[in-house]
Amino acid sequence: MTFVIELLVSFFLVMGAFFAMAGSIGSFRLPDFFSRLHGPTKSTTLGVGAMAIASAIYFSFHGEGISFHEVLITLFLFITAPVSAHFLAKAALHQGLHRKESSPETSRKSTDR
Amino acid sequence: MLSIAIPVAFALLTAAQLLNLYRLLKGPTLLDRILALDTMYIDAIAMFILMGVFFHSAVYFEAALIIAVMGFIGTVATSKFLMRGDILE
């Protein structure tokens, strides 16, 4: 039983860290602001959510009683992350940023024609 | 199992923070820097949760919650300022 709990906690911890890493790689590599915006705001939120689940499982089985703090953090992040991403996108539109025209998709379309 | 998983998760999160730091320092526009800071505080929450599991202490969750609230307010305030030139209208 203890081994199963430990396995579950380890899986969720590594999964959360992996998704946070994936979001940061997206922010590191993608060409323009709007594509850079969607990487971290989605996958990093999922990473923190998985990590909070791992912590809730761990403290429910090793502490006293069922632990709910982490669910609070997850709930708050799931509400606020889309709001802040929306504000950033609106500010970018207001500042007149445009998507980069030489992205792979548009260049493929132009060569098809 | 946990003695392997926690260092691996710490290493992945540290690499993520370094990539965010690169974007924060280099980022071509101001909004890239704001986005990098936003991502950095979310990753910091993940690191605090991980430290809570590592040290087996529940003190870190309050700090993580405060970081979440303050980071959200900071991101909204800066982007609202860029949008309107004013924070509270």
Automatic annotation (TrEMBL), chain A:
One of its GO terms (molecular function) is sodium:proton antiporter activity. InterPro entries: PhaG_MnhG_YufB. Residues 98-113 have a biased composition (Basic and acidic residues). The keyword Lipoprotein does not apply. Pfam families: PhaG_MnhG_YufB. Residues 94-113 are annotated as: Disordered. The chain crosses the membrane at residues 12-31, 43-61, 73-93. Keywords: Membrane, Transmembrane, Transmembrane helix. PANTHER family: ANTIPORTER SUBUNIT MNHG2-RELATED (PTHR34703). This is Multisubunit monovalent K(+)/H(+) antiporter subunit G. It comes from Desulfotignum phosphitoxidans DSM 13687.
TrEMBL record, chain B:
It comes from the Bacteria. Keywords: Antiport, Cell membrane, Ion transport, Membrane, Transmembrane, Transmembrane helix, Transport. It holds the Pfam family MrpF_PhaF. It is a multi-pass membrane protein. InterPro entries: MrpF/PhaF-like. The chain crosses the membrane at residues 34-56, 63-83. One of its GO terms (molecular function) is sodium:proton antiporter activity. The keyword Ribosomal protein does not apply. GO terms for cellular component: plasma membrane. It is found in: Cell membrane. The keyword Kinase does not apply. Belongs to the CPA3 antiporters (TC 2.A.63) subunit F family. This is Multisubunit monovalent K(+)/H(+) antiporter subunit F. It comes from Desulfotignum phosphitoxidans DSM 13687.
